[in-house]
Amino acid sequence: MLTQEARAFVKQWSESLQDLGPMLTGENKTVSLDQIRAAYNGMLAQNPAPPGITFEHVVMGGVPGQVAIPDVVGTDAIVVYIHGGAYIVGGPDGYHGIGGHLAKMLGAKVFLPDYRLAPEHPFPVPIDDTLRFYKGLLDAGHPARSIVFAGESAGGAMTVTVMVAARNAGLPLPAGGVAISPWANLEHTGISMTNRETIDPLNSKAGLVFLANVFLHGALPNHPMASPVFADVTGLPPIMVQMGEAELMLTDGMRLATHLAENRVRMTLEVWPHMFHAWHFVASLQPEARQALESAASFMQQCLRDAGKPS
User: Fold this and answer.
1) Is 247 labeled as catalytic in the residue annotation?
2) Which of 29, 130, 206, 303 could disulfide-pair with 175, CB 3.0 to 4.6 Å?
3) What is the CATH number of the domain that holds 276?
4) 310 by DSSP, 3-state: which?
5) Which of 153, 181, 192, 227 is an active site residue?
6) Is the overall model pTM greater than 0.85, yes or no?
7) Which candidate in 101, 277, 280, 288 is catalytic?
8) In which domain, by residue range, is 261 found?
9) Cα 154 from chain centroid?
10) Domains identified in the chain, total number
């Protein structure tokens, strides 16, 4: 069960975007989207990086971002962490906690692309920007076999869709990826969208449908680059999917895992009882959050080891 500290953070998180819908529809003109985004990042930043991590600004493929650098870098391998936020909010400043913890666990640099956001830059811009960031890393001399992807929510979906886009563009694929609570099906047809409606402390189905429409900007919700449950995933590297049992996206995340497995992608599925959407944020407050990050880090290490073996 959740600790008191984690529960308090989740409550604050659930209230942090209450002005977003009214602002986007024009019902609330007293707050700007920039203000909401800044407040959201500030809320997430309450979960800081562990000691021994520094952050630097970078630009890869013309896309800005940040890199988390541990005091002790023990590998040339790197992580590309793709942030969530429904493609509308979020950014590297709010992800020092997750990025920093992964950097320390892996002894590796963690890159955080700052892709452009909807509604100013709707589908498929966030995916295109993240692909450009990845290509920038390749062009800078980082071999694909030394790169792993990770991300949560929208970023969890992009962990898969950016791989698909890279494959379609003829780019070498990373060694593997971890999709945390992926927003994998913008049709929202999984049964957990109904039977977790009063259990999920962060999301509602109506809210997710609204946010998806803002992002899609007229594109179909079953577009394979928006909803990876419909994508051609053949040939992708190993992928781990981690889901919280209490989240609305549970069934659709499990559907993504099945879709990957049925298309001969080596995959690992973890479902954590009682955990909420992207619980990894509270790694300093909730034992299961740190344990899930450690499991993700272990999976990425194995992917990197396997990719480095001669074929």
Assistant:
1) yes
2) 303
3) 3.40.50.1820
4) coil
5) 153
6) yes
7) 277
8) 4-308
9) 5
10) 1
